[in-house]
């Protein structure tokens, strides 16, 4: 089984704040892994470290076999990334932005690739609209399209469904499940437990920068008919890692 993400004692401080505190975890090929935690628990910092956007204070991580500290550029070339609350450049249209990403990634068949995403996420009618004039949901669709344009084997997504309406949430959830069924790997963060409960294979629960638990979703919910929410609240309110 191929390890797509391997983190060992990964930590990141911001001044006195320990955003991520000695987290070790691994994700294997074909898994849909959800990192769950309350606001400010360290999810974004974790994703930023795994994508070479933030240097760990200590510890190490390999993503698709590449050391994130030694070669962050290669990590970002290989994987797809949807950062939290990031928006595409205001001065480009949706289509210009995707073409721009495709050229940076040196992709072929640019028109076909972009068309596929416009159709899959149902926003072909917005292709000529400047990004600054798109709704938040459509901008999020565009961020999805840019992340998956090069068909990466691994995508890291920070709060993927936050601005999407229920219909688009369904489309994206179905897409993510299909993507892992076909061999892709997803690492995403959320504080919306229903989403995790619906689509994850395995989850990690982070609180105050500490990883309190990792395990298969079916194992968490199998014992005594307990919901993921019950389990999550028990752990987080239990004060572990505080
Ligand atoms: N660039 C930064 N400078 C200073 N402190 C930071 C920075 N980024 C994160 N932090 C702090 O690190 C901690 C973890 O933040 P992080 O954004 O990783 O959490 P999160 O789980 O993604 O939160 P949310 O769900 O609210 O997005 C918080 O206390 C936050 O204030």
TrEMBL record:
UniProt organism field: Methanoculleus receptaculi
Keyword Amino-acid biosynthesis: no
GO MF annotations in UniProt: ATP binding; ATP hydrolysis activity
Domain ABC transporter: start-end pairs: 5-233
InterPro entries given in the database record: AAA+_ATPase, ABC_transporter-like_ATP-bd, ABC_Transporter_VariousFunc, P-loop_NTPase
SMART domains (UniProt xref): AAA
Protein name as catalogued: ABC transporter ATP-binding protein
Gene3D superfamilies, A to Z: P-loop containing nucleotide triphosphate hydrolases
Pfam families, per database record: ABC_tran
Keyword annotations from UniProtKB, A to Z: ATP-binding, Nucleotide-binding, Transport
Keyword Metal-binding applies: no
The organism's place on the tree of life at top rank: Archaea
């Amino acid at each position: 089984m191929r390890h797509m993400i391997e983190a060992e004692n990964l930590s990141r401080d911001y001044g006195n704040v320990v955003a991520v505190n000695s987290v070790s975890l691994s994700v294997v090929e074909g898994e849909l892994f959800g990192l769950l935690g309350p606001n400010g628990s360290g999810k974004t910092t974790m994703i930023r470290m795994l994508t070479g956007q933030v240097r760990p204070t200590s510890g190490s991580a390999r993503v698709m076999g590449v050391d994130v500290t030694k070669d962050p550029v290669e990590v970002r070339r290989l994987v797809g990334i949807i950062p939290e609350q990031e928006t595409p450049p205001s001065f480009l249209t949706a289509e210009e932005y995707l073409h721009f990403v495709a050229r940076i990634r040196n992709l072929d068949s640019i028109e076909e690739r972009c068309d596929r995403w416009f159709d899959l996420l149902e926003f072909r009618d917005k292709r000529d609209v400047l990004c600054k004039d798109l709704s938040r949901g459509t901008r999020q669709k565009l961020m999805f399209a840019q992340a998956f344009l090069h068909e990466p084997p691994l995508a890291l997504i920070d709060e993927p469904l936050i601005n999407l309406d229920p219909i688009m949430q369904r489309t994206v959830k179905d897409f993510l499940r299909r993507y892992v069924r076909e061999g892709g790997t997803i690492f995403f963060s959320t504080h919306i437990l229903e989403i995790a409960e619906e689509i994850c294979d395995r989850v990690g629960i982070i609180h105050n920068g500490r990883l309190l638990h990792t395990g298969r979703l079916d194992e968490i919910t199998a014992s005594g008919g307990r919901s993921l929410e019950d389990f999550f609240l028990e752990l987080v309110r239990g004060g572990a890692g505080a």
